[in-house]
Design goal:
- Four copies of one chain form a homotetramer.
- The first copy, chain A, has helices spanning about 10-15, 45-60, and strands at about 20-25, 25-30, 70, 75-80, 90-100, 105-115, 120-130, 140.
- The first copy, chain A, is globular and about 45 Å long.
- In chain A, strand 1 (about 20-25) and strand 2 form a beta hairpin.
- The first copy, chain A, has about 140 residues and is mostly beta strands.
- The longest helix of chain A has 15 residues, at about 45-60.
- In chain A, the strands form two sheets. The first copy, chain A, has a six-stranded antiparallel sheet with strand order 1-2-5-6-7-4, with helices on one face. In chain A, strands 3-8 form a two-stranded antiparallel ribbon.
- Chains in contact: A-B, A-C, A-D, B-C, B-D, C-D.
- At the A-D interface, strand 4, strand 5 and strand 7 of A face strand 4, strand 5 and strand 7 of D.
Chain lengths: ~140, ~140, ~140, ~140
């Protein structure tokens, strides 16, 4: 199992996704569907798929060219369509791409596919950079 | 803390939401934001809010008039806007309403507010009933 | 037929909608469905309904408190669901509400109903104010 | 100027778009932006772009293998993001693709680009086939 390129946040650890590819304008987030991801009818919860899409889209616009620095963004709008059916045991990969944007706003697209390449979900997100994260250099991670 | 009116599915238990009101065309889903719900920048993950919206919207169209029976639906499309900022410790309530629909498809709207009534997120979902769940009577829960 | 409170732009005149109510955070846009609004299968085109939603949502965040001034915004994201069936001859009213926002971004919701109050479509938009339009006072209309 | 492969419906003629490529799962819709397409601030109306996206997405799922027959669908959900700025005189092309679907529902993606290939808008739609249009053979066009 591929390790995550960045330690996910706490919700990411709860859900169990991993950032497995990341470069300017591009991010891949992977997850192995387990029993904890199923809804009341035994299939992966829509919120799980939305989580993968939000994460891959957000990362795709936040690649940072300075090691140790970070870029941060907030989601303004996230749209998702659930087009196929995943099952427990599937390995899902969400590929996010930043398609356009300026200094403050960026636009993204995402597809989620299973290990056989079947399209499971698609989505789009609009994000706003947080102050200090507008440029590819990002900013130092603040100590707390 | 209000108990859930239905035992949530496994993802619901992982995330920790509760169904606290449910009637024909209406559902409320509540969650207390804890450390596990935060993203890499310390605020609630967009996927968490999408999960609440998907859940409240889905339940709003699946109220069942026969005790012990159940109605099931799959999400076709889920749209979310993140309009405010929630924090750890907040109690979020997602109110879902079924606004229209026919025998197979139903449409919903949702607002997520914090304990002070501030709008945190809004969204809309389109759902399809699974076979056997088209009528308010629903169907018996299958043994496995 | 109620006159428009503001002369619509050129696309608005082509399509034929009218701004019939406008105040801070609120706008109503009306249109009588005519033959020119129908698609290849004889019902109102989805793009027509999206146009009404985009217009009502945009106006709802652009009310200006200084007579003769103007506020301008661009749509970042527009989502629409088509929940009912309108017909030629119907009078549609799109009610847009600004639900949240800050200095640069605002969020909206919209419902489109026919003359009998039936819900025909619902939607949500995220908008960005253009430079100079961030405050309720707006800015003078530039001469060209 | 390329002719339309199918005579557009009445709203299509009002707006002025043309269907310039069409095959199973794919459609291209073109439009030259003219003065009539501009909004109150002098740029193409968001509803115009939503119209192109709705049209290209809808056509992409309605290609019919029997000459003279037709397939019809209704939009359930349409999402659009406006990522770039078009101008009067631009030739916009909306490329719609059916990405998944079953007998009754199909899912689509769309990108709108200008003559220089710049991304102007992106979107996604969910559609439902009308009765009689579920198969690629479609059905005869009814006389009226």
């Amino acid at each position: 199992m591929q390790e995550s390129l960045e330690v996910p946040g706490q919700f990411g650890r709860l859900v169990g996704y991993r950032l497995i590819a990341w470069r300017e304008g591009y991010a891949e987030v992977a997850l192995t569907v387990g029993p904890d991801h199923l809804n009341r009818t035994g299939v992966p919860h829509g919120g799980l798929l939305a989580t993968l899409i939000d994460t891959a889209c957000g990362y795709s616009g936040c690649y940072c060219t300075v090691p140790g620095n970070r870029r941060r963004a907030v989601t303004l709008s996230l749209n998702t369509q659930f087009v196929g059916q995943a099952r427990a045991g599937d390995i899902l990969t969400a590929v996010g791409r930043a398609t356009a944007g300026g200094r403050r706003i960026f636009f993204t697209q995402c597809e989620v596919r299973d290990q056989a390449g079947r399209l499971i979900a698609q989505g789009e997100g609009v994000f706003r950079y947080r102050c200090g994260s507008e440029t590819p250099e990002g900013e130092p991670v603040a100590e707390r």
